Amino acid sequence: MANLGTRGAAGNGVPPINIGTTAPDFRITPERYTTLDTLIKSNKDFVIPELTETYGDQGITGFLKLTGAITSGGTNDRVDWWETGRRHRLLDYTAANTTLENNGFTISDSDVTSNLQVNDVVMDSETGVRFIVQAGGFATGSAVNVVLTKLDGTNAAAADLDATTAGQLIILGNMYAQGTNQPTAFTEADIIKRQNPFMIVKGRHEVNGSQATNIGWVDVGGGEYRWFMYAEAESRRRFEDQREMMMLFGEQHDGGAGIALDNDIAGSEGYFSAIQDRGINVLNGNSNPLDSFAEFDDIIIELDKQGAPSEYAMYLNRRQDLAIDDMLASGISTGVTAGLAGQFGAFDNNPDMAVQLGFKSFTRGGYTFHKHDWKLLNDPTLLGASNFVQGAMVPLATVSDPKTGAKTPALAMYYKEANGYSREMEHWVTGGGVLGYTNNGDLGTDQAVFHYRSEVALCVRAANQHVMIRG
């Protein structure tokens, strides 16, 4: 290329500027351009706007409502209630504390000495032999060894008590001679006070201002294409699911010398904790669920012992649900064929209503059972990943409060409230101007924060009438 000029006269020490040695290339060729279609992608993407629910409806809430667990307000840090104990009771004794002497038995177990007095009549639960208390017991002011002789007057033999390891005595009553005084001791009514603290469950969701205004391809519901709307709704549903699971699986902290929980958490007794402690527990293997008349009849016999009501809702995992279907198919009367007037009592005696709610009903031994699968126990990311629980049987009945006389379902959820302020399901939003929320104290924060909070407690009254089917 030609020399376009010099920076100074020759000999001034400044070299000339040489642009190049060849001519400039100003040619216009097709390689320098792209097509309009490639530049702007003129073909619109074909996007299906409907959001696909890959795992169906994943919500697990509803168990408490369907089983009649009403919600009521509470005004203390815990819920107190009272339950009646057994009117009659068995007395435990051990072979180590039982001796045969002077044609009778002497028993030193505290359960016996603290609950019997002279002239009480008892029967051994295994042998059926009846005895009368000749001496000892709690009538003397302090519990002393009880002396039993046979009620028929014959000499006692070792086989009259089932004392190889341990046994039980049934209190039948008492027997007095003519002209004798009234008993000096009496037994108090067995009233049990129970308590359950409220628990606080919290949740949170955040979205920044940019994401709150972005429009996506997917209709997340109601013609709304802002993705954060779906994400916030999912956070709320997850919170509701977790709140229900805490009411099912929560436990009270015993306050003992073990590990202390942070922030003085008292814990709260959940449904399954109550049944494990005070209810009927049926133990099965996952490969062998409850699937025979014999096993089912054992439960019915236990329900009889607990004074259970005649109607139950059964919530089961799929394996247990199918096993009972097979059992019913082998010959038990179903709700369609039995024709009993009280068959669908919980559903206004309307079989169509039961079917609409997803229940299948049948009768056995004077009890009506309404069977329903339980999504919580089938979800592989929840209890479907565990063999701990296979199902629950919930009595569809009311219980009476001995203090107020009010009748409520045996299963009830309480939440904190006072003067119009309710903590059943609180929801509020803070933000630094995002979505119009300017109430977080820091307007420089480019986000909106969705808060969820609930303070609740579940009360399982008459837990002895509930059944937990366990793996």
Keywords:
single chain; 471 residues
Report on the structure:
This protein has 471 residues and is α+β, with helices and mostly antiparallel strands. The chain has two domains: 63-81 and 197-413 and 460-470, no CATH class; 90-179. 19% of the residues lie in helices and 30% in strands. It contains eleven helices and 23 strands. The strands form five sheets. Strands 3-9-6-7-8-5-4 form a seven-stranded antiparallel sheet. Strands 1, 11, 19, 20, 21 and 22 form a six-stranded mixed sheet that branches. Strand 14 and strand 15 (367-373) form a beta hairpin. The longest helix is centred in the middle third of the chain and has 23 residues, at 227-249. The chain is elongated, with a radius of gyration of 38 Å.
